[in-house]
Amino acid sequence: MFNKVLIANRGEIALRIIRSCKELGIKTVAVYSEADKEALHVTFADEAVCIGPPQSKNSYLKSTSIISAAVITGADAIHPGYGFLAENGEFSEICSETGIKFIGPSREMIRMMGDKATAKETMRKKGVPVVPGSDGIINDVNEGKKIASKIGYPVIIKATAGGGGKGMRIVEKEEDFETLFQMARSEAEAGFSNPDVYIEKYLENPRHIEFQILGDKYGNVYHYGERDCSVQRRHQKLIEEAPSPIMDEDLRKRMGEAAVLGAKSINYEGAGTIEFLVDKYKNFYFMEMNTRIQVEHPVTEQIYDVDLVRNQILVAAGEKVDTLPLQEPLGHAIEFRINEEDWEKDFRPSPGRIESLNVPGGFGIRVDSHVYQSYIVPPYYDSLVSKLIIWGKNRERTIKRARRALEEYVIEGIKTTIPFHLKVLENEKFISGDFDTSFLDNFLKDIKLKS
User: Fold this and answer.
1) Which of 65, 194, 223, 319 has fewest C-beta within 10 Å?
2) Which residues does residue 170 pair with via DSSP β-bridges, in sequence order?
3) Does residue 366 sit in helix, strand or coil?
4) Are residues 358 and 406 in the same domain?
5) In the structure, what pLDDT confidence band is assigned to residue 433 with cuts at 50, 70 and 90?
6) Distance in angstroms (rounded) separating the CA atoms of residues 319 and 321
7) Which one, of 101, 21, 110, lies nearest residue 318 by Cα?
8) What is the biggest distance separating any 2 CA atoms in the chain, rounded to whole angstroms?
9) CA–CA distance from 152 to each of 83, 173, 202, 204, 425 (Å)?
């Protein structure tokens, strides 16, 4: 087992990792930018090292500074969390060359699955249905136009190293292709230091379903059911739940087998998700794999009684997955992302000082957060300030408990998405489970029309 783990991240996920490390008896090192010197992950880690100015490119994305911090503090492993360097194969390799264990997949695994274009080809060869699109990375506008014309508009241009909705553009017609192609590449370069993109047929109004997997070095790969991530805005998830309201035993079996097959095809080690699009006829198509822990991992933890971060660490240390999947999920869980955004003003960011804070509690409620009263939310990073995870015996009870918890949750001084989530919980389509990836756009249009 590791003696000391450096967490190459910030915010709630850094705290989440520190907690699992402490329970395993592992010392922790926090890294932080100048903007995060008062952050909780800095307070609760055993050691902390400043790695640069506020901008991510000069701190959390600067691999040389992170490696130096690990060497100076004697850390023998690095956990990247999600975002930043979590799916950076070069960083994984640098860790290996420095004699530091990267708590995540190898560079080769990231190349084969973390790189979304390569992942599609890998899954296609294994017989898993994939969304029609380019065979790999597209660097030339004219080549991209030819592929788009062949598969038919609308198409979606995606950053191969993407995540969080960055580096994605939907193209409805050919005359918009070049502009949107260049925009996607520029955003990918800025967000991931990698401008590569690929093209897929854009499936209108599908469900976005992802399967949680864990693999170890002994060839074991398990899936822990699905999460429904269809409530999203501009490809950024806002509400996630498990199990999915559309899932039945047969569909879960077929999709789960496909997810495990894909992970086993590259001898995958660690936590990851295999992501699918599911149409109204319950046909499913492989979309991508995320070779990291996901923001929404707590809903799976709640219904499968598994600590996914603990298992990530164990597997990286050469041990077997220590919590096998349950035969059936236990109840229902929903995660609400509490972002510092003014949803009534097109989700405009709202950083600033938290003047007053009351966190909900009670049975079935979990809050993963890094903020506290008087904390100043910086303007430089992702807008997530908290994750409210609600568990109940069934979906109906979970929704009722969620309403109560959101009403209790008070964050004053900044605008948050709490009022937005309460509005969603009044919507009949959401309550009935009859929604897809177009739900939020239609919901927001209806709100504007009524106002």
Assistant:
1) 319
2) 156
3) strand
4) yes
5) very high
6) 7
7) 101
8) 60
9) 32, 9, 9, 13, 36
What pLDDT is recorded for position 22? 98
Three-state SS at 123: helix
In a shared domain, residues 237 and 336: yes
Say how far apart CA 189 and CA 181 lie, in whole Å: 12
Residues in the chain: 451
Summary count for the chain: helices (H), strands (E): 15, 22
424 and 287 housed in the same domain? yes
User: Are 53 and 157 within one domain?
Assistant: no
One-letter amino acid for residue 73 of the chain: T
- Which residues are part of the catalytic machinery? 292
Give me the mean pLDDT over the 75-83 stretch. Answer: 97
- 256 and 393 belong to one structural domain: yes
DSSP string, 202-220: --SS-EEEEEEEEE-TTS-
Residue type (1 letter), 242 = A
Q: Count CA within 13 A, CB hemisphere, residue 136.
A: 5
In which domain, by residue range, is 143 found? Answer: 132-201
Q: Cβ distance 316 to 325 under 8 Å?
A: no
Query: Is residue 158 located within the same domain as residue 227?
Result: no
* Burial class (CB within 10 angstroms; exposed 0-12, middle 13-18, buried 19+) of 270: buried
Q: How many CB atoms lie within 10 A of CB 415?
A: 22
| pLDDT tens sequence across 282-321 | 999 998 899 999 999 999 999 999 999 999 999 999 999 9
Residue type, 425: L
- Asked if the peptide bond before residue 298 counts as cis, ω within 30 degrees of 0, the response is no
Final residue of a domain: which of 183, 201, 219?
201
pTM: 0.88
Question: Degrees (nearest 5) of the Cα angle 362, 364, 367?
Answer: 75
Task: State how far the Cα of 147 lies from the Cα of 134, in Å rounded to an integer.
Answer: 7
Structure tokens given for 300: 């799976």
Query: What total of structural domains would you count in the chain?
Result: 3
- The per-residue pLDDT for range 179-224, each reduced to its tens digit, is 999 999 999 988 888 899 999 888 888 999 999 999 999 999 999 9
